[in-house]
Amino acid sequence: MLSKPKIIEKWQKRNRFGRPGTTLITKKIAIHYTGQADVEGWQTVSYFNNVVANGYKVNGKYVYASSHYVIDLDGTIFQLIPTSEQCYATNSANKYAIAIEVATTGEDNHYTDETYKSMVHLCAWLCQYKGLDCKTDIITHTDVVGKAYKLCPIYMVKNPHKMTQFKTDCHNLKSGKITLDNIINCTSPDYIKNSSTSPLPKMIKVKKDVNYRKYPDFKTSSIAGVAKAGDIFTIVDLVERNDTNMYKLKSGYYITTNKTYIEEIY
Ligand SMILES: [Zn+2]
Questions:
Q1: Residue 127 pLDDT more than 80?
Q2: Domain of residue 235, CATH code
Q3: What's the CA-to-centroid distance between 95 and ligand 1, angstroms?
Q4: Are residues 79 and 170 in the same domain?
Q5: Which residues, other chains included, contact 119 with Cβ-Cβ below 8 Å and sequence gap of 6+?
Q6: How far is the CA of 201 from the centre of ligand 1 (A)?
Q7: What is the pLDDT of residue 197?
Q8: Residue 193 — very low, low, confident or very high, per pLDDT cuts 50/70/90?
Q9: Residues 28 and 89 in one domain
Q10: Cα 264 to averaged position of ligand 1 atoms, centre (Å)
Q11: Residue 13 and residue 57 share a domain
């Protein structure tokens, strides 16, 4: 059994803007980002508990917002709302989702090693506690509201393979395949260097005309253009997929790793 992570309780008072006291039957765990990189999590806690909960207006309208948990840049986990009650974070999923707001760092809003470890520990433990499946029941805010409404948490939405890795890490911790000490932060800029996976090629050369894509998938809708035989591209990341893996190019586009189409240059 996975132990409960250390949690600092900062209970929000009952109020109509963030803690209405309605019952929550948990079916999903939704992760969020606080919206601005390098803002400490305790400030988010204070905003919910000391500002929003007292009635806070933006453009003349009351803000309704809260979160069950907030994870700080140093990995501290705060809890504001009991998991038996609904919060206001995930729109239509408030009825069935526990919400976790997570502080982010850097231009791309990735996670510090301490934050990532706490995210995995908390989500894995919540799945154990609530009888949920880490691979299917941990979701993003965007999974609920769609990309046009909000990219949240922005790093995970823009790097879906990292979200998959995160869920795998939660699953592996919950099932005892890994321990807390060997959680590796897959969102770290150093991840490829530090991980045991084979090194990335510096570039690839196209052997046979092949599509490059807006997203790391092979759907028709993600086609962005055609890479011509002989073209050379710089590689910045590897996207691990259930079927064929893809490389992320410096341009931000994705291309297959299938050796029929490309040749790797190290
Ligand atoms: Zn959100």
A1: yes
A2: 2.30.30
A3: 15
A4: yes
A5: 31, 71, 100, 102, 111, 166
A6: 35
A7: 54
A8: very low
A9: yes
A10: 38
A11: yes
Q: Which amino acid is at 234?
A: T
- Residues, CB within 5 angstroms of ligand 1 (ion): 32, 141, 152
Domain assignment of residue 187, yes or no: no
Does residue 208 share a domain with residue 169? no
Domain that holds residue 104: 8-182
How far is ligand 1, taken at its centre, from the CA of residue 145, in Å?
9
Ligand 1 centre distance from Cα of residue 35 (Å): 8
143/210 same-domain check:
no
CA–centroid distance, 82 to ligand 1, in Å, is 19
Between the alpha carbon of residue 219 and those of residues 16, 124, 142, 223, the distances in Å are 44, 31, 20, 7
| pLDDT for position 185 | 96
Give me the mean pLDDT over the 181-198 stretch. 76
Q: What digits encode the pLDDT tens for the residues 14-71?
A: 999 999 999 999 999 999 999 999 999 999 999 999 999 999 999 999 999 999 999 9
Q: Are residues 220 and 117 in the same domain?
A: no
| pLDDT the model gives residue 190 | 79
Distance from chain centroid for Cα 178: 20
User: Which of these, 261, 203, 199, lies nearest to 232 by C-alpha position?
Assistant: 203
Q: Could you tell me if 153 and 162 are in contact, meaning their C-beta atoms sit under 8 angstroms apart? A: no
**pLDDT class for 192, splitting at 50, 70, 90?**
low
Q: Over the chain, what is the mean pLDDT?
A: 95
